Amino acid sequence: MFGHLKAEDFMNLMEGTPLPGKRRVHLEACARCAETLKSVEAVRSQVTAMQGTDDEDILEPDWSEFRGDVRNALLSRSVKRASANRSWLGGMGWKPAAAWGFSMVLVFGVMTSVVFRNQDTMERSGSGGVPVEETLEPAGTINAIASMSQPDVFDAIIQLDENETESLRLLLENLTKQSASPQ
Amino acid sequence: MDSMDRTLTKPAVMALNDTDADLSLVERYLGGDLTAFDEIMLRYERQIYRLCFRFTSNPDDARDLAQDVFIKAFENLVNFRKESSLKTWLYRIATNHCINHVKANTRQFVEVTDSTKLTHATAQGALEEKEQRDHLRHLVTKLPPKQRAILELRIHEHLSYEEIATMSNRSVSTIKASVFFALEKLRKLVKEPVRIRS
User: Fold this and answer.
1) What is the pLDDT averaged over residues A28-40?
2) A-B Cβ pairs (cutoff 8 Å, strict)
3) Which CATH class is domain B107-198?
């Protein structure tokens, strides 16, 4: 069922927008809506009429002074902000301060990584890793190899019996044949 | 001095569409062009001041409020998203500022006092036109701040319903209804002053 007009309908009517069919019919038939429209419209025209004369009554400031005050306030605030930043950065601009801070972070990072690397190497050598000494050749072995000389090998060959001598001869012949034959 | 300023700067700005001109002024200001500051001020200082005056009815308070609005606006101009026009953005700041000011001085609109009844009674007689206007103006100050702001923006500042809706994040229907309810409340106040709460 269609009810009374809504606030929006009244405003549309007062501002010259026509109502759709059903609502217009309702307005024509409803004394309450018609009365509301009439009385609110009267107040609206009073308020609207008030505007022109109101504007004349408004005391305006000196606009150049008004503007100057706003400008000065903005400047003083930006100066305050800048000085606050400067004191925090120790008198440096933000770019040099950022560069300085970055280089400090870089130095700290490099130093930290070096320390951790050294620590890691020391831990490995101290516990789970292969001891440094064990990786090197024992001094005795090196000396033994160094002391070995060609006469010792010939001495060993001279001490072979007949069978061993024959086997060595066959082995050397075979090797000679293999190296002589084309691949 | 003021009128001279206006005639010097307005033609250059008027050549462009209002919104485009505003955006170009904002970009110029943010780019460090300080003449853009004066141009923005010239375009809006009077409108913003008048809105503030309607809320305060006092030139000194209106001046302070309007200056605060511009200081706040220029400091936050970098955050202006260009989704709305500079005009509605400034009006939004001004309206919120005025509403806060009125809320801080709530006694002014909390109740309609006996003196209002007295004024009303005499207004029914042979009061001059100015007194009637003053009376109506006084009654407008009795409206709740948000309703009053919407009424001022619509009736006095001639902002469209769409602009007010954008400013206040409400629908056009809600804004129309708010204007109607403000007028209806005024009608009741004019006829029979009663105690109203904000």
Assistant:
1) 91
2) 93
3) mainly alpha
| Closest-CA distance of chain A to residue B176, Å | 5
Query: CA A180 → CA A174, A175, B63, B197, distances in Å?
Result: 10, 9, 115, 122
Domain boundaries, chain A: 7-56, 73-116
Residue in chain A closest to B3 (alpha carbons) equals A63
- What residue ranges of chain B are covered by domains with CATH 1.10.1740.10? 1-105
pLDDT along chain B (198 residues), means of 10: 41 55 89 91 94 90 95 91 85 93 67 46 54 82 90 88 90 93 90 53
Chain CA centroid to CA B130, Å: 22
Q: What is the pLDDT of residue B6?
A: 40
Inter-chain touch A39–B53, beta carbons under 8 Å: no
Q: What are B146's two structure tokens?
A: 């948000």
CATH, range B1-105: 1.10.1740.10
Q: Is B171 left (phi over 0), alpha (psi -120 to 50) or beta?
A: beta
